[in-house]
Amino acid sequence: MSTNRKGIMYAIITAFLWGFLAIVLKVAVQEVAPQTVVWFRFAIAFTLLLGWQTIKHPQSLRILIRPPLMLVFAAMALSWNYLGFMLGIHYTSPGNAQLVIQTGPILLALAGVVFFKEQIRKTQLWGFVLAAVGFIFFYSQQIKLMVGEETEYNMGMLLTFSGALAWTTYAVLQKQLVLKHTAGALNLFLFGFPTLAYLPFVDFSPLLNLSWKWWLILLFLGLNTLIAYGSLAQALKYTQANKVSIIIILNPTITFLTMGLLNWLDVSWIEAERFSILSLLGALTILAGAVLVVSKKRTLKPTKSAA
């Protein structure tokens, strides 16, 4: 298998993991509080990564004792990204939250122009316009379907957007941090910080009465966090970053298709999505705009991306 195909395969794995993630999170909050779910995701990922780094790269543990200030801010941003997204799913739906969280990569591209003086292309400008029009159209159609639930829906949309903004902040800081530190060391602190920060807000009592099925769900969420980020790093190692970005940003389609299948099967364990043809048209417009924003101009001799 060529390195390019390996990269695409890892990117697809990440997209599927994140596509299913929102659905499983929506199921998890039926029994466990949102902040507890978020803490559990970080705690499992941190524990497993700590064991790996202790054996393979023990020197990376030093970052836990004296982390750079920029890393602390990045960890704070990532902490809120997880909670904002979780609360957004709780108040709206997996499809809605997955779509709104895609503003993160769009805002990151905008941050690249503002903070890193990256050149903006006409294609990206059209992408920004398409995404903005798509969001306005999508929201205007969706709010009509939320009769009597407008306040909760708006709260969920705002919380998800704040999570996307937090992710952009994290990504901008991470872009500087990876120049001096390994991804493993950085992730160790990024997972460890929220594990401690959210600990005072965790209610452990519901966990004591959970059946093994719910424990499997929580375990999946923790492993999803670790495996998805690991696959993303591998994808960036083997193929160009713009190819990875385009595949990843299409993960809401996986959520939409899965939720559509669950709606058709009329399952009782998750609330059905409420979409109209017009709101789906708005969603497709957003994704088309996002793809244009993150896509890169082709060069005759592509360079290999670094993880």
UniProtKB/TrEMBL annotation:
GO terms for cellular component: membrane. InterPro entries: AA-Vitamin_Transporters, EamA_dom, EmrE-like. Residues 6-139, 155-294 form the EamA domain. It is a multi-pass membrane protein. Its main location: membrane. It comes from the Bacteria. It is found in: Membrane. This is EamA domain-containing membrane protein RarD. The lineage of its organism: Bacteria, Pseudomonadati, Bacteroidota, Bacteroidia, Marinilabiliales.
